[in-house]
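On clarity, I found the account of how folds are encoded harder to follow than it need be. Since the whole study asks how a given chain folds, the encoding of that fold should be made plain. The format is easy to grasp once an entry is in front of the reader. For illustration, here is how one protein appears when written out as sequence plus structure tokens.
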Amino acid sequence: MASAPAAGEFELIARYLSHLGAEREDVLLGVGDDAAVVRAPPGHDLALAHDTLVDGVHFPRGMPADQVGYRCLAVNLSDLAAMGARPAWALLSLTLPSGDAEWVRCFASGLDRLAREAGLAVVGGDTTSGPLTVGLSVVGWLPAGLALTRSGARVGDELWVSGWPGEAAAGLAFIQSGEGAQSAPVAGLVERFRWPQPRLGLGAALLGRASACIDLSDGLAADVGKLCHASGVAADLDSRSLPVSAALRAGAADERTLRGWLLAGGDDYELAFTLPTGTDPTPLRAAAGCDVHRIGRIVEGAGVRLDGEPLDPASLRGYDHFSTDPGRGT
């Protein structure tokens, strides 16, 4: 994308960043003052989440600006979905290497698209100069006392997951290899990485049904491991029940690659959750907008197993920003 003439901070804010997202009656004072003022509904708890996305770490260098804008909100909304919260407001912090007005316009259009779909208003933030970094804080609300957590899973519960884990990791692999548009299956995997779909409808439908929930950002095995640790239990995955999409199978060169994407790949932003045995998943499928799959059971012990055998520790590690392993991360 060719760079437009540089613009100043206040011009960028006024032109592109001051009216992002939905119009909400509970926003009493938005962008333009020293702080935003919002009104929470009575009888509800607030859920707050924050993510920082760094160029070359959380998204590939050169990723189109509209995809960066969409992605920075999607990963935060996925955190709210995992709590069963309804999105309401956001604060945006944008650090830019230059005042590239065209880049900011495209970034804002991507963020605004998803914000309006989710009914969320961006009510403030900050714009600074430096290496490309996006920070976003989101706030949602849900009925008091009903928040989903990682710590409620119980022995005997069934373990479920939404969508098709592994597809985003495969898409990123093809982006990094330069093979992003060579075939229909590969193109579909790339789109799954570029445009993650936060499962807000599913999260809301899980309230009062699920015993525990987590979103999949670091990989299926790693994140299920976090849920198990918080709940003081173990998970036994059934290899025959793990969902493998046609696109993932077509894109994988061998079974080892396929299993690595499926269990250790990150960036899916699906939900893994536990349900009491015998729970009818039909209303959950309707709310999710995608299929949901039973993939195992919660058992006594610690950690994650596959067909009764402990998984390779590498599958459980997840992404660590300060790891000395150069093979992980974007």
